[in-house]
Each structure stands twice: as structure tokens, then as C-alpha cells.
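Input:
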Amino acid sequence: MAKYLLLKHYRRNSGPESVVDVPMQEWSPAEIDAHMTYMSDFAARLERSGEFVDGQALAPEGTFVRYDGAGRPPVTDWPFAETKDLIAGWMVIDVDSYERAIELAGELSAAPGKNGDPIYEWLEVRPFLTEPPTVTE
Amino acid sequence: MTDPPSEALLRDLTPAVLGILVRRGADFATAEDAVQEALLSAVQTWPADPPRDPKGWLVTVAWRKFLDDVRADTARRGREQRLLAQPSPGPTEVDDDTLELYLRCAHPALTAASAVALTLRAVGGLTTRQIAAAYLVPEATMAQRISRAKRTVSDVRFDQLGDLRTVLTTLYLVFNEGYSGDVDLVAEAIRLTRQLASISDEPEVAGLLALMLLHHARRDARTDSTGRLVPLAQQDRSRWRTDLITEGVGLLQGALDRDRIGPYQAQAAIAALHADARTAEETDRVQIVEWYDELLALTDSPIVRLNRAVAVGEADGASAGLAALGQIDASIPRYAAVAAYLHEKGGNLTTAARLYVDAARLATNLAERDHLTRQAARLNHALGTN
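Output:
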């Protein structure tokens, strides 16, 4: 088994022309409910299959922080104006293969949005580094 | 007044107790739950009231819990009547029951991860919570993995159980998982393999146990005080555990004498040759290559070929090692690390430094990545100051 992070970027720049990026606040309440239900059903299904580890949603607004020299408070809110990438949340899965991780990310990307159409969001799949194996030669 | 039986004793008794319930006709999934409940009762009651016959106590309590579970399901009433009439097994059958349990929990119908989880619980007597902690997943996830596995193998008839190969693969996976977590999976794998070796005279079982002991003997020397990986050639050999090496070598010799060689015996033989050398230079490198050739004949895989290339490099020099490496698919894990090592050995430091950087990028575990990054930095530093 191997653990993978599915990072939800909400950076949709491909998919059919008919699907347009509509912010969630412009969906109907029922469409939002359908989206949330899809997410929680997805997590519940992975729990039943023994593949779920963790999942969290993130607030959209974050703060950049860095060290600013001895005795000085950290610098916050550096203007990263070019950062259009919104990380909306993540899920951690524990699966038998890389192929299974890709399959599941593809399913998660198909969550319904406006008009119930799949939102085609990009998910980044990143393997976790593990402990070293016991047998090395 | 006896001392309260330890958790270790309870867990040693687990497979025999479960085996007895299954032999009496209990279905595997329900019996397994009943045994876990009995273990829990034992932990709670034995310290104050230790039984004279711990195994008998566990069988009685587990059987009672099993019957309670069955009675709760009225549809099974007819079956219960049949079960109540079953005689209890004689002592010689316990070993067979235990072996059957190992086979069932590592059945080929299960994925490797499911076989590992089920074996740790049903044979090892670990709780779901402990197994979940060892594999860093939520308890609910592990509970589902185990219950799915139980459903898969519950109705497998004993004459349809697989053979020992899947059992050995499962135990090897537990051993190779590493040293993280509260549950020592290495020690657990050794305990379960030792138990299996006591009931099976198959040479590969002894071979696997020898392999585990010989690697485990080097555990303390494999990392330094700050947790950095120490390569075999640089390990402080005074920190190798000679008791484990002696036991491993003895087991291996016993297995090899049976003249039924297998991959675990071959790997143990390689580990034994390393363990046998007082210094890295004294290692019998030619014989190690011969064992890799034997291993390749038994089980050809790119990983074995990769390790063989390292051995050839040690025995016949870097260019021979690189020639062996040239015949292997470069996309396999640790290929770049081996190429870097052999290039450095051959004096080609610039190429080696570049390959160590590649290898670090491709590493799948943190300790190895850090080690490879330090190797690259060491060479880059030496090249830069020349």
C-alpha cells in the first residue's frame, strides 16, 4: 500500500467548452448540496474500501509568512499577486497502486458543479515518502 | 499464585484458539471476532484472577462468545445445534489448525495489504487499533479493510487454501514495512515467522526466518544517533547482534541441508555472507555474486538484477558492475542510486554527483533521499574545491 495526497487546486483550464467556471456562490443551493454530497459519499466509499486516510477542506484566504531576521517579527502577507492557484482542500488515500490513485483522483475530479455537470477540476497526485525498507540488499 | 500472563502469551495463543473454534465448525469471520473479544476479557480479568490453563480458558470464553453471536442470529439456529454436538480437537490437530489459519489469512484472493492486516489480527492477535496505528491509517479504515478480508476468505474451504508462498510473502511484507509506529512490525513479523517455523518444516520458512534475523541483527547499526542511514560498508560491525546472526546462520544451514533451495534461502545466504565478514573488505564478494546468480535462476526480477549489479561492481570492479547495470531497465526504483554509486567507484565523480541528484529526486523514502542528497553534496563539494 502507498499513501497519496490528492491536492484539490480548483485550477480548471481544460475540459469541454460547454463547461464554464462558475464560482460556487453562483450555483443553486441544490447544486452545492449535490457537490458536497458527492464529496462525502466519495470519502465514505473509500472508508468502506479501506483506502481512506484523511480529508480536509481549506478556507480560501491564507497568509504568507516568513522569517525576517533576528529580533524582528515575521513578515506576513507578501504580495504573491501571481498566485492564482487556489488550494481548496486535500484528501489522503492509502491504495494498492499508483494506477488506483489516478483512478480515484479522476473520480474526485468529476464532482458535480453548476447544472450538475462535472467540474473537471485539476487534482495533483503526490506520493508520500515512506519509511526505508528493512531489507536493503 | 502465578504471574499474570503477558500480552505476548495471549498473542502466542491466538492462532491455536481461533484454529480450534474453526475446527469445531465455527465460521471464520464470527470466530475471529469471538477470539478478539476473549483476548480483551483476558486482559481485563487475568491480572486479578489468572487461569491455570490459559489456552483452555481462552477457548472456553471465545466459544461462549461465538455461541452468543450465533444465537443472536436466529437464522443460524439449526447450525448452532449442529455445532454444539462437535467434539473438541485432540492436541495433534492444533498445529494443523494453526497452519490452516496462516494459509486462510494470506489467501491468494486477498490483496497483499488485506492479507497483511488480517494476518496481524487473526494470527497475530493485534487489535484493529494497533494495526491501524502501525500503518498510519484511521481505525475505521483498517476495520473495513479487515472485515472485507474476512468476508473474502470466510467461506474458502480448507482444501482450497493456497500454499505457503503467499504466507511467506505476507510475513516478508510485514517485516519490510520498516520501523515506524508504536507497534514493532519487524519484531511482530519475526514472532509470526518463528511460530510458523515451529509447525512447518518447509525449508523456505526457515530461510525466511533466517533472512529476517540476519537483517534484524544489523538494525542498530543501520542508522546513526541522528537517524541518518549508514550504508552497509560503513556500519559499526560491533553493533551487529551476534546472537541473531548465529541463530540465523544456524537456521539457514539447516534449511540448505534439506537441498530444496528457494529465494528466501538464497537471500538469507547473501545476508549471511555480509554478516560473516569482520570488515567490509573481508566480505566474500565472489560468493555473493554466485548467490545472486542462484537467486536470479529462482526468481528473475529487475530488483534482483539491480542488486546483483552492485555485487558484481564490488567483486569485479566498477566497469563490470556498470556493464551489468546496462542490461537493466533504467526506470526501476533505485537504478539511479546504483548507477551513481558505481560511477563514483569508477572515479567518474561528475557523472556520479549528477546521478545522486537524480536518485534523490526519485527516492521513495525520506531517509534514503536525505542520504542521496548528502552523497551528491559531498561529491559536488569535493569537485568544487579541486
